[in-house]
Write a structure and sequence with these properties.
Layout (H helix, E strand, L loop, with lengths): L4 H10 L5 H18 L4 H27 L6 H13 L20 H12 L3
Helix pairs in contact: 1-3, 2-3, 3-4, 3-5
């Protein structure tokens, strides 16, 4: 799975210089995006959260969530998530803080995230 060049640059850019300030500068809005997506009505709020926090933050939230639920998801979806996480080099040891807690069946993420995954894949 190969990610779109623009999306890859967005994620690499949020890594900053690899310092502590750069880490939290990206981590705080990403945690807020995960919190906003942590609802059973995630399908309804997904596009609004995407507009508010950007593709990089929402993509990282999706990737962390997909990796947590990978045993129930399609191979291509999991590969996309792994590629996203490879690019986020300035991340905390525990990425559970950005996992979406939507309370839905694990496979539902593929439904509401499909458009972003397709738009950021080649």
């Amino acid at each position: 799975m190969k990610l779109d060049g623009t999306f890859s640059r967005e994620i690499k850019k949020v890594n900053g210089d690899g310092g502590r300030e750069a880490k939290f500068l990206f981590l705080n809005p990403t945690k807020a995006a995960a919190k906003s997506l942590s609802t059973t009505k995630v399908k309804d709020v997904f596009s609004d959260v995407l507009r508010q926090y950007g593709r990089a933050s929402v993509g990282v939230c999706l990737a962390a969530t997909i990796i947590e639920r990978e045993d129930r998801l399609e191979y291509e979806t999991v590969q996309w998530a792994r590629e996203v996480m490879k690019l986020w080099t300035n991340r905390p040891i525990d990425t559970g803080c950005v996992v979406i807690q939507d309370g839905l069946h694990p496979t539902k993420i593929e439904e509401y995230a499909r458009s972003l995954i397709r738009a950021t894949s080649m």
